[in-house]
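>> Question from a student workshop board

For tomorrow's exercise we were told to take the sequence and the ligand below, predict the bound structure, and bring the output to class. My setup keeps failing. Could a helper post the expected result so I can at least see what it should look like? The ligand is magnesium ion.
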Amino acid sequence: MAIERTFSIIKPDAVKKNVIGGVTQKLEAGGLRVVASRMVRLTEAQAKAFYAVHKERPFYKDLVAFMTEGPVVVQVLEGENAILKNREIMGATNPEKADAGTIRKEFGTNIERNAVHGSDAPETAAAEIAFFFSGAELATLER
Ligand code: ADP
Ligand code: MG
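>> Workshop helper replied:
Here is what the output should look like for this input. Compare the format with yours to find the bug.
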């Protein structure tokens, strides 16, 4: 299995609940390593662009409002099979349906306010990492 990189957002609800550490602990315990991390407040334009794939969905407008209501932490995670691994550690989109011990089960509130975002495939991981982090910036963080 190859070492992969994936992209994660600790969403405004989790930042507000003061569980940046709790979320990150679960990622690390699951074998992922934080290789880049930054707190940002998304603009409406950024949130709309980031979630453009959902623009026809009924929840799009609310989702953009939620994602811009407060600061988020954007992260690049690295590890064996990181994209799928992160999705496992996150749990199902709806926290009520998420497995015990997952981030969304423990820290999510509802299907919208579900604590974290994680890329779902290699193509989206690459695009989402590039949306927030430059190659030059990532290179300075190599260890
Ligand atoms: P995931 O984040 O698990 O990949 P999706 O890509 O389907 O889920 O949806 C993106 C985000 O949109 C979700 O994480 C959640 O914040 C929000 N969302 C998804 N489905 C709904 C819904 N039915 N009602 C409200 N918000 C939703
Ligand atoms: Mg998704």
